[in-house]
Design a protein that fits this description.
The chain is built from nine helices and five strands, in the order E-H-E-H-H-H-E-H-E-H-H-H-E-H. By secondary structure, it is of the alpha/beta class. The site of BIS(adenosine)-5'-pentaphosphate has 29 residues, from helix 1, helix 2, helix 3, helix 6 and helix 9.
Length: 189
């Protein structure tokens, strides 16, 4: 059973690493960004409400995101583990998640903080070219990260579950460190 939160700035490799670990650990990769992008594409009510925030690099309001997470973690495939990518994104979301996990009697094993220098983040995103990978939007996403999300490092450090990982190395090297963290945890359990 593996339950991890991927923290880290835009472009750090949260999605890339979560995808690989999800296969290895056989637990779902839950990305609020992917869920929201799917909703935008399908032009659902959620998608229509979220689109403007996303294209500006702002956080989508909590009331849209919290229900979505409650519902997703309640689905059957998430009972025996999950990898959260892009959630929580601010202190309110982190407090909501703590309460929700209490309610459903689950605990998160680790919060993985992927560390990558800004210049590397920017060049990775520009090379990818997603709809929100434009220079001014990237700058805003980084600002929003510093202001809203980075405080979660201290939030989770207080709970002694934080593992910082150098995400600037080659993808496979980062993966192998993450696999080691998961394996050590499973040995202890
Ligand atoms: P979201 O989809 O979460 O995007 P993000 O946080 O900006 O992060 P990215 O997906 O850009 O980066 P990543 O860390 O996943 O890196 P990746 O693996 O792709 O959010 C998008 C928007 O949705 C937000 O702005 C907000 O509006 C909204 N949203 C989402 N969640 C929300 C929430 N909880 N609350 C409110 N709003 C929310 O890698 C990036 C690139 O680098 C890829 O091309 C990859 O191939 C490459 N790469 C990865 N690892 C390496 C490596 N080791 N070496 C070289 N290249 C690498
Ligand atoms: Mg991502």
């Amino acid at each position: 059973m593996t339950r991890l939160i991927f923290l880290g700035p835009p472009g750090a490799g949260k999605g890339t690493q979560a995808k690989v670990l999800s296969k290895n650990c056989k637990v779902p990769h839950i990305s609020t960004g992917d869920i929201l992008r799917t909703a935008v594409k399908a032009k659902t009510e959620l998608g229509q409400k979220a689109e403007g925030y996303m294209s500006a690099g702002e956080l989508v309001p909590d009331d849209l995101v919290l229900d979505l997470i409650r519902e997703r973690l309640g689905q059957e495939d998430a009972v025996n583990g999950w990898l959260l990518d892009g959630f929580p994104r601010n202190v309110e979301q982190a407090e909501f998640l703590n309460k929700l996990l209490d309610e459903i009697k689950q605990t998160c094993d680790f919060v993985i903080n992927l560390e990558v220098p800004d210049n590397e983040l920017v060049s990775r995103m520009l090379a990818r070219g997603r709809a929100d990978d434009k220079e001014d939007v990237i700058k805003n996403r980084l600002d929003v990260y510093r202001e809203e999300t980075e405080p979660l490092i201290a939030f989770y450090r207080g709970q002694e579950r934080l593992r910082s990982v150098d995400g600037s190395r080659a993808m496979a090297e980062v993966t192998s460190e993450l696999q080691q963290i998961v394996a050590n945890n499973n040995n202890e359990a």
